[in-house]
């Protein structure tokens, strides 16, 4: 349905961005932004949380938050796209292409054993986001991951937006019948099952995990929640993502110009060049940066360092320990 107010807001933001860029190029002017951070460091972010008490923190995560759980990322030298030679694909991304899947589902399900390993557990990074929720300051968790570890960490479903879907559920491509994760996991690891098929005898269609393939529309919830959430955001934390896949990567631009943004990652991604004339990405490398912080390292190391600065270290350790006990006595069936 056409929403005049939303379209008007988008147009207003576009006009403002264009005017700012024009002033920068023509007059050398930059829009003034008063920094809310005492310093452009992890300590500055911690001080902001303690002193300014943000209530609408948004977290954006990618594959880097799950690698310590044994789930591969996609674009590193040992990631998913580097390990597909044996499947004789026309190109690496074909394994997640819906058109290719429709005619050749076998490669995906062979590879699914690697993509969806059994008995995985949430990482410290997952538990840190859960800690934000426990403290009542998490607005929403936007994730590119399809592993559903957010939910295993205890996150309520309404707090999570799975931008690329997840394998929490699966759907028959023919009749639409739904299946849970346990059913799909059993099929994937059954040596006698090459491709999971619907158990309705009159159907027997291919059952596909509810992850978003290339060529499929993003979940409606991604659009509705992002329109609602990002204008309210007062702290953006980005972890373990290359920030190259759209439209997920573009969300970093949807917060207000003075909202602090923290990137925890092994590589400096999504940033402007130091000498850039206008800001189109994260600004941590720019001399006129007033709000962006880049902390280089693993997601687990980053959240532990931030928790220590916040005096939350003991709480985080307790959550991790409780999870270890929980999943040791009753391993997750994923």
Task: Name its key features.
single chain, 334 residues, Rossmann fold, SIR2/SIRT2 'Small Domain', 13% strand
What is the helical fraction, as a range of percent? 25-40%
Largest beta sheet, briefly? 6 strands, parallel
Task: Describe the strand arrangement of the main beta sheet, using strand numbers.
Answer: 3-2-1-7-8-9
Number of domains: 2
Radius of gyration, CA atoms, in whole angstroms:
21 Å
CATH class of the largest domain: Alpha Beta
The CATH superfamily of the largest domain is TPP-binding domain
CATH architecture of the largest domain, by name, is 3-Layer(aba) Sandwich
> What's the helix-strand series?
HHEHHHEHEEEHEHEEEHH
- Report the count of strand segments: 9
Q: Could you report the average pLDDT, rounded to the nearest whole number?
A: 85
First and last CA, distance: 38 Å
Please give the count of helices.
10
Class per helix and strand makeup = alpha/beta
Question: In words, what does this structure look like?
Answer:
This protein has 334 residues and is an alpha/beta fold. The strands form 2 sheets. The protein has a 6-stranded parallel beta sheet, with helices on both faces. It contains 10 helices and 9 strands. It has 2 domains: 38-68 and 124-164 and 220-329, TPP-binding domain (Rossmann fold), CATH 3.40.50; 71-118 and 167-211, SIR2/SIRT2 'Small Domain' (2-Layer Sandwich), CATH 3.30.1600.10.
Task: Write the SSE topology.
Blueprint: H1 4-27, H2 42-52, E1 57-61, H3 98-103, H4 106-115, H5 124-134, E2 138-143, H6 149-152, E3 160-162, E4 165-172, E5 178-180, H7 181-188, E6 207-211, H8 220-229, E7 235-239, E8 261-265, E9 292-296, H9 299-309, H10 313-329
Parallel strand pairs: 1-2, 1-7, 2-3, 7-8, 8-9
Antiparallel strand pairs: 4-5, 4-6
Helix pairs in contact: 2-9, 5-10
